[in-house]
Design a protein that fits this description.
By secondary structure, the chain is of the alpha+beta class. It has five helices and five strands, in the order ααβββααββα. β1 and β2 form a beta hairpin. 9% of the residues are buried.
Length: 149
C-alpha cells in the first residue's frame, strides 16, 4: 500500500468508528429489553391501570364485577368477581372451561388488546368468587396467540 492511500484509509476508518459510536445508542432504543424501554412500558401500564381503576369496581353484567386492574411483572392483571359464585358450591373447572376460550379469543383478536399483545409481557385475568377467594387465573402471552389460531 502506498503512502497516498494510508491517510484516506485512516480517515475513513475514523469516520466509520465515529459514526458507529454516535448511532450505537439509537440501536439500543429498539431493544425491547433495554432499561429505558422497560421503564417506559412500566409507566404506560401504570397509567392504563390508573385510568381503568378510576371507575372501578363496576358491575359489568348480572354475574360479573370488574374489581381492579393491577400491574404485575411488566404485564397487566384484570381482577373480576363472579358475584353469584361461591367457590365451594360450584365446579370451578367448568366455569374456567366456559370463560377461557372467549378470553383467549378477545386477547388474540381485539384491537383494544393490541397494546398488551405487542408491548406487555403478559395479560392475566383473575376471577374471584363473591367472598373474594381466587377461583382461577388465566395468563395470556403473545405466544399464546400463535398456538390459538
Amino acid at each position: 500500500m502506498t503512502r497516498l492511500w494510508r491517510k484516506p484509509l485512516f480517515i475513513a476508518i475514523i469516520a466509520v468508528s465515529i459514526g458507529f459510536f454516535i448511532t450505537y445508542p439509537l440501536w439500543l432504543e429498539d431493544d425491547p429489553y433495554s432499561s429505558k424501554n422497560r421503564n417506559d412500558l412500566y409507566q404506560a401500564l401504570i397509567e392504563r391501570s390508573g385510568i381503568l381503576n378510576r371507575d372501578l369496581p363496576k358491575l359489568l353484567d348480572m354475574n360479573t364485577r370488574f374489581e381492579r386492574a393491577e400491574v404485575v411483572d411488566y404485564g397487566m392483571r384484570y381482577v373480576y368477581s363472579l358475584v353469584n359464585v361461591d367457590r365451594y358450591q360450584h365446579d370451578i373447572a367448568q366455569i374456567q372451561a366456559q370463560v377461557e376460550p372467549a378470553l383467549s379469543d378477545y386477547y388474540c383478536r381485539l384491537d383494544a388488546m393490541k397494546f398488551y399483545r405487542k408491548q406487555a409481557d403478559h395479560f392475566t385475568v383473575r376471577y374471584l368468587d363473591r367472598h373474594g377467594s381466587t377461583l382461577f387465573e388465566l395468563r395470556l402471552t403473545p405466544t399464546h396467540c400463535n398456538s390459538f389460531r
